[in-house]
Structure formats: C-alpha cells, structure tokens
Amino acid sequence: MEKKYQICNRCVMDITDPDIQFDDNGICNHCRQYDELVKRYVFDGEQGKEKLKHIIDKIKKTGTGKEYDCIIGVSGGVDSTYVAYKVKEFGLRPLAVHLDNGWNSELAVKNIELFLKKLDIDLYTYVIDWEEFKDLQLSFLYASTPDSEIPSDHAINAILYQIAEVNKIKYIVFGCNIRTESHLPKAWSQGHLDWKYIKNIQKQYGHIPLQTFPHISYFTYQKYLITCKTVNILNYLDYSKKDAITILENELGWKYYGGKHYESIYTRFYQGYILPKKFGYDKRRTHLSSLICSGEITRSEALEELNNEPYPLELQEQDKEYVIKKLGITKDEFERIMNLPKKTYYDYPHDWMLHPSIQRLIFSSYNVISGRRINI
Fold first, then answer.
1. Which CATH architecture best describes the domain 44-350?
2. Domain boundaries in the chain?
3. Of 154, 191, 235, 347, which is least packed with CB atoms within 10 Å of its CB?
4. Structure pTM?
C-alpha cells in the first residue's frame, strides 16, 4: 500500500526519506535530533568564545616549533572558506589540503586560488588518478545506490588524516557544523568511511584495481581518532551561512556558486539531476531544513525554493553532456544507468562495525574510559 504523503510541520523533510518518523505534533525525527545536537555541541555567545579560545590555545601550544599547527580541508565552498578565514583571524598556522578529483568548477578553482593567496595559506593538492577514479565513479553508478558521492568523501577524509600523520599535525579543523548539516537521512547516502563497501562495489562493477585511491580502513580510522583531534570550529561561533557569504565576498572577493557543494560539477549534477530524477531525493530538503531550524530562513521560503528546479534546466543539460563525455559513456548507457533497479548500501557487503548502533556503543565506552569527548 502506498504511503500517505506527510511533511514535517517544522522543516521541509518528508516521506521521501523512507525512515522518517513524525511525533504527535507532526515534527520529524531530524528536527528533534537537531535540537539535541545543538544543545550538546553548539556553543553561542560568550560560552562559545571561551571554549573556542581554549581550543585555539591548545592548537597553538601543540603546534609550537612546527611549520603548521593545524590542517584545514578546502573545496572552494562557503563553509571551508569561512573556516580558512577564521583560523587565520585566530592566529593559527594552517596547511590547506585540497582533493582534485577532476570535477572542480572553474569558479571553485578561482575561489581557492584567490582566498588562499589573500590569507597567505600554503596549499597541498592531491590530484587523484583520473582513470582509476572515473572507473570507481562508474562502478557506483552501476551499483545503483544513492551513494555516488562516497568515493570523493572517503578520499578527502583519508588524505586529511594521512597528511596530518606525515606532518605530525595533531589537529584537523573541519567546516562541518550542526546548523547547516543536520538533516541527513541515512537512506539518502551512507558508507562514507566504509572502505569494505567501496572495495566491494569496485570489485563487482569496476575494471581497474584501486591501487592509488586514498583510503582508510575501519581500524586505521579508529587509530586516527586517537592520534588526531578534529575540531568542528563553526559550532563554537555564532555561525550564519548568509553572513558568512557576505563576509567572504567583501573581504576575500570570493564568489557564490549557487548551491551547497555545487563547487563541484559532478556534485551539482548528481545532487541536482540524478538523485531527484532516479531516486526522488532532493538534497535541498536537507539543507533548507537545517537552515529553517537555525532560523536563517522561514519554512515558507524553503517551500517556495522547492517549487523551483534544483538548478537551471539549461545548465542541467550542459552538465549532463559534460558528465557523459567525461565518464566516457554514451547517452544510451547513461539512460540505462538511470533506469537500473534502485538499490541501497545494505544490498552490498559492508563493514558492520560502522553501523550507527555499534558506533554509538564504541564511542560511549571510549568516552567513559578515556574521559575524552569526540570533536572536543
């Protein structure tokens, strides 16, 4: 029986998330989780300043005598650029790390070059092996799960931790934050740290061995959690994406690219075309819902935005032609991929240790034993 349509009375998440749950007031589980996470991890005003000062002092102390005291990942997007702006303002000495996976938009490249030069930040760029990576991306498309962005996410995390280890840098400062990235359905994408899942997808559908692809196993990741400390710095600031964009434009000459993570052509096309057309998932719902809960936009404004195309139709068609050509497939083959039966993460071998319930148990036990709080 077809499920009756329902949308959250607070945000714009709806039953396109198959796991969504509503309470008696019609509020979804994502909004309830948002409130819990904000209460636990977000610190505003003087409390945030005090805690952040303590963290900054620890980073500086740990980095004494070293060329760099922290690592930041940069993509050219709002959050990572704002992190770069703030860490320099706080007097830190960051090494910026960027993964070039072959899909950077021209604007993203210009943004990165511009703000790093203005902020006087050194850059390390890892250029991925294109033929190997292209084959892996195609494997994920043939796997027919909504997880095709996972290879890039996994590689980025692997590179950040590996560069930190090589340079003996203890702190990695991330742009992740509760206010703009809280409403994230597992069904829409998961397995970002699951090397077993990635390997099995490539083994089943790929043609090129993953010999150079940056990766981390589950146990290596656990080791990094001990040797490295991650700081989600935006959770300690009165962070507003709208205000951040204005500051970056005025102070650094940075230019907005039109959507969350749209600094990547593949991400723009995947989120704005493939996900909604094949799976019925509109990632704007997650981003807009987070902004509603953070008070940056109203629910009415979000609903109005959802009435529009994810991005201009003409650009969608341009991106479609570009992606098909760059991946080396035909239009007919692309349409066949779009019509493959939909599958999920759980249809493929994966690492059961990364299941949310297992991770909660591990981190809970680890924190009790060590007294350490994740993400400081």
1. 3-Layer(aba) Sandwich (3.40)
2. 44-350
3. 347
4. 0.90
User: What's 242-308 look like in SS3?
Assistant: HHHHHHHHHHHCCCCCCCCCCCEHHHHHHHHHHHHHHHCCCCHHHHHHHHHHCCCCCHHHHHHHHCC
pLDDT value of position 167:
94
Residue ranges of the chain with per-residue pLDDT less than 70: 1, 257-262, 355-376
Contact between 264 and 75 (Cβ < 8 Å): yes
Query: How much is the pLDDT for 374?
Result: 35
- Report residue 57 as tokens: 């002092």
Q: Are 279 and 146 in contact (CB under 8 A)?
A: yes
The Cα-based distances of 249 to 27, 113, 123, 244 in angstroms read: 36, 14, 21, 9
Q: Quote the pLDDT of residue 368.
A: 37
